[in-house]
Design a protein that fits this description.
The structure is a homodimer. Chain A is α+β, with helices and mostly antiparallel strands. Helix content of chain A is 41%, strand content 26%. In chain A, strands 1, 2, 3, 4, 5 and 6 form a six-stranded antiparallel beta sheet that branches. In chain A, strands 7-8-10-9 form a four-stranded antiparallel beta sheet, covered by helices on one side. Chain A binds a DNA duplex through helix 7.
DNA sequence: GCTCAAATGCTAACTTCTTTGCAGTTGGTT
DNA sequence: AACCAACTGCAAAGAAGTTAGCATTTGAGC
């Protein structure tokens, strides 16, 4: 079966770099550690620069004036965010919160600019990274427009799945899952029980067990109407 | 009043280029003309390259397997699309259809690569363009998640508005407007009549008249919960 | 200036999602 | 070991959006 672009993880920025470039980027950045739940950045922060996840994970989300939060993405080690603030004079667009003990490498715009001179190939790397993020973001928009809450949830679960014993798990409360697909907790709960009915997942406390990840992937693929476009490594 | 990023138009690619760069890009491309309604590209086309709108307009949209079409954006002269196919090995993501007599400048990936060597500054230009598109795409996703159909429609109307006599007009059938905000025609019609009730717009045949664009912008701004982030020229 | 396909405006039944509220469960903390 | 805050699961009312259908209006093309 072909691997559809299910993971919402953008980036894969560091992973595909040649060794020397990676060294240079790492040397240019400051490593900062965050506790579980700590705020890494807030929407509106004016700190142009690139942030690379080294350890742990980062939940990118936004909250509207009515206190409704919605999550956009979970960044994993090797992913990066903030590229946009390097080239545009804009503040940070999303809130970023550490999930688990997390380490972030921060490269300021100044240092990054110098880095670009030393490593011209980095520009192309960044271009590819932005292009991929744009492509994934358009796909996400598409999903939001066309797919039912249940399919969106299933797709999100595939993206969050981690190996666990025989099968996989996606960790997070139902409220968090609801935020990830931009619905209410009730709808997320219903969607989840539909997937349980189908025998695709089992619910647990702050977790969803996925006995056969492949089956879930197939189920999602059969319901994602547009042909997937990006191949994921 | 501050100018919120209401226009869904991405790009502004050519407009901000230094003259020499612009000349070089134009020299590298082939100009192709399309009739109103002609297909410029289809989702899945494998033609890596950059397409720049020179004259007319282009509607970017996608259709799912059930024949439901949704429009993503209307590209105007100076905007460009296809950047992603330059750096990623992916097919074209969206269908593109000419709106009115339209001219497109196509630059193949090969020619563009050579162009990058001759005009290194073009890379930064492209980085900024991708960054802006990503930022706008994230905003669009946000709107889709949080805003009601009525506000989304109003925002779209502001983006489509063209000067017309005293005020402005947004041209397009209600079906097309519905596709632009990803709802049914009925909902689009209801949303439209709400805006009429508010005295913000007047309906017409294949057009919506906007007597006071500023008033509509204010109305939208008051209902867009997240602080706008990108300034639009 | 007539014709007709396309577009608008409306209604009604139905589905989906949200909000509110509550009862029962879970697992970290004292 | 007991407590309690957080989480799950469920129900009911209502809001929002969808589909289907029909009568009327519009304007482009003959």
């Amino acid at each position: 079966m072909s691997e559809p672009p299910l993971s919402p993880a953008l980036g894969r920025f560091i992973g595909q770099m040649p060794f020397a470039m990676r060294e240079a980027v790492e040397a240019a950045g400051t490593l900062i550690r965050y506790r579980n739940g700590a705020t890494i950045q807030q929407r509106g922060d004016r700190k142009p620069g690139l942030s690379i996840v080294v350890e742990g994970a980062v939940r990118m989300s936004a909250m509207d004036s009515e206190g409704e939060r919605s999550t956009y993405i979970l960044m994993r080690p090797g992913d990066c965010f903030g590229e946009m603030t390097l080239f545009l004079d804009i503040p940070r667009t999303l809130d970023a919160v550490a999930v688990g003990e997390t380490a972030i490498r921060e490269v300021s715009r100044e240092r990054f600019t110098r880095l670009l001179d030393a490593q011209p190939a980095l520009r192309d790397h960044l271009l590819a990274s932005l292009a991929r993020q744009l492509s994934l973001s358009l796909e996400q928009l598409d999903d939001q427009r066309r797919l039912s809450a249940t399919v969106r949830l299933a797709k999100t679960l595939v993206g969050l799945a981690e190996p666990d014993g025989e099968g996989h798990v996606a960790r997070g409360s139902q409220t968090e899952l609801a935020e990830a697909i931009a619905t209410s907790r009730v709808t997320a709960g219903k969607a989840l029980s539909e997937l349980v009915q189908e025998g695709l997942v089992e619910t647990a406390y702050r977790a969803v067990r996925i006995p056969h990840l492949g089956a879930l992937k197939n189920w999602v693929a059969a319901r994602s109407f547009l042909t997937p476009v990006i191949k994921r490594d």
